[in-house]
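Request: Not sure, any thoughts?
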Amino acid sequence: MGGGAIAVGERGSFLQEDRTSHTRQTPRQMNGGLLLVTSLAAGATAGAVAKTVIAPLDRAKIRFQTSDIPYSTRAAVQFLVTSARTEGVMALWRGNSATMARIVPYAAIQFAAHEQWKKVFGVDSPQAAKEHPIRFLIVGSLAGVTSQSATYPLDLARARMAVSPKSEYGSLRVVFIKVARDEGIRTLYRGYPATILGVIPYAGVSFFTYDLLKRWYTEYFGSPAVGLTNILLGGCAGALAQTASYPLDIVRRRMQTARRNADSSYPCPNMAQTLAHIYRVEGWRGFFKGLSMNWVKGPIAVGVSFATYDFTRTLLRNFTFNVNSS
């Protein structure tokens, strides 16, 4: 369902660790507002860089998600090679502008929403989260719903650009104009119910599993997980969450990219009919088409995201310290 959820949860833990490290190492401390701003800026940058790196893999995945063509690694590679030969190498990044426009507000909104929902449900401390795991699961789901609802039209635009030639949708602006003019404003939220139903298990399972794994690690080894261990725990949580929600991700993409009939209706007008069509044509395997691509690009995205986040956060905070000191 989008890889934002687990990354935000991980950034929250690093923010706490960062506060501790600065307290030990730096006599001049930053206030909470600056900590939040630099974390959000670093997180948005990390998300943008990671999404750009894996954009070609994302385009290949969406191509197979939105068609009846059987998926295989060989077929995915062939699609990328053919696209680069016929449309140019930059065609592999088609739709990435919509991804960039979405990932920055998405990451910021999800991070802020997760913190606020934790306060609302009274699980804004490790002890409270441990005592009320179901509440923590709900909080993760609500954070995902909040950010997806705010940025959904950008996700639809990204999907349309990823599966269409440049002559049809030359830019993000053209997508919005054509969809609104030809199909109506409501179409910008076509597939939204499937997305929200998918986000609930994805965000909930990812936040919940990541927090649970970190707690188990701390209890077993006597110290909190850091660095590479956090990446591995986050990867496990993300893989489990993606698998749980993937069939609804397939439905979302099919509905986002569906072409209208001559009478202005859609071949599969709702989620139930889309589910039935996929099962009838492709069987149960159709609901997991491209999932292995997610398992490949997921660790790449997480690794790039963490490396970029740490570098950017350190750079921003050092700059802020220097400005405050001068």
Notes: Residues 2-28 have pLDDT under 50 and may be disordered. The radius of gyration is 21 Å.
